[in-house]
Amino acid sequence: MKEQLQALQQEATDKIQQASEPKELQAIKVAYLGKKGSVTKVLKGMGKLSKEERPVIGEMANQVRSAITEAIEKKQEALETALLAEKLEKEAIDVTLPGRPVRNGGAHLLTTIMEEIEDMFIGMGFEVREGPQVETDYFNFEALNLPKNHPARDMQDSFYITNELLLRTQTSPVQARTMQAYGGDKPIRMICPGIVYRRDTDDATHSHQFTQIEGLFVDKNVRMSDLKGVLNVFAKKMFGEDREIRLRPSFFPFTEPSVEMDISCKVCGGHGCSVCKGTGWIEILGAGMVHPNVLEMSGYDPDVYSGFAFGMGPERIAMLKYGVNDIRQFYTNDKRFLKQYHQA
């Protein structure tokens, strides 16, 4: 049995020295020291030995096991060192090479436009307010003079979650919430930017999700001329000092009277071209004097307070200002399109 153990130790040592990768060492360990390994099989025959021989063979077996284990560990360490050296050599970095340029990202065009609009109105004394995108039917419609079954609701095909909850179709609910929060006895000068949702078919000029910025000014003795003055300042700052505006009669349930605002076409200077469809004017936003019903439902006395409201789409503003002809380009994340508008 001594000869067997010595032969197994020599045999295992030779194989360990010849091993070229860690998985071979693992196989050798299992083959010699595992439950069914060669050394283990030899030790199972110790029951046939005399009492005098058992301690001697047991001690020798332990020495053989330790020797094989130690040889495996040394070889393992040597292989790992060699592999690491090889990897370092392959992955060596030439520090004399020029570095790769890091391209900075930039704000999305819509973000830039919205921030530009916000800065304009903040400069005119307006504050920026936000509200929930999941809105109640009351604030989205009823508080804005659109009771249930009102035909004007058909103009805004909505995403309803329950009978009383929906994805807001406009940012106007923020105006109603603000008026009610102010208790009906404080002036309000605010804009409310945000995302809105409508059941619409996506095409070059429509999207089921888009952005909107609405404004509200409520105080004593607010007049239509105040509205025109604010919108005139906005148009000139956004599109150029040579832009002219005009207000056309329109209809919105929450304003009376209501108007659409056009700006003179910057392409033809108001003479008529394909961009403005020969009219010389381009529609830009809707506005009007806050309906007395809306003021009253929010706690303001319409005999004391008056106000104006307006609403615009940043997508449309961006399309007109930068000549974008497809609204879907704002949402498809095409870097070739987006990088054109990165600020330096």
From TrEMBL:
It catalyses: tRNA(Phe) + L-phenylalanine + ATP = L-phenylalanyl-tRNA(Phe) + AMP + diphosphate + H(+). InterPro entries: aa-tRNA-synth_II (IPR006195), aa-tRNA-synth_II/BPL/LPL (IPR045864), Phe-tRNA-synth_IIc_asu (IPR004529), Phe-tRNA_ligase_II_N (IPR004188), Phe_tRNA_ligase_alpha1_bac (IPR022911), Phenylalanyl-tRNA_Synthase (IPR002319), tRNA-bd_arm (IPR010978). GO terms for molecular function: phenylalanine-tRNA ligase activity. Keywords: Aminoacyl-tRNA synthetase, ATP-binding, Cytoplasm, Ligase, Magnesium, Metal-binding, Nucleotide-binding, Protein biosynthesis. Transmembrane segments: none annotated. It is an enzyme of class 6 (ligase). Pfam families: Phe_tRNA-synt_N, tRNA-synt_2d. Mg(2+) binds at residue 256. The keyword Secreted does not apply. Its cofactor is Mg(2+). CDD domains: PheRS_alpha_core (cd00496). Binds 2 magnesium ions per tetramer. Residues 106-340 form the Aminoacyl-transfer RNA synthetases class-II family profile domain. NCBIfam families: pheS. Tetramer of two alpha and two beta subunits. Belongs to the class-II aminoacyl-tRNA synthetase family. Phe-tRNA synthetase alpha subunit type 1 subfamily. This is Phenylalanine--tRNA ligase alpha subunit. It comes from Tigheibacillus jepli.
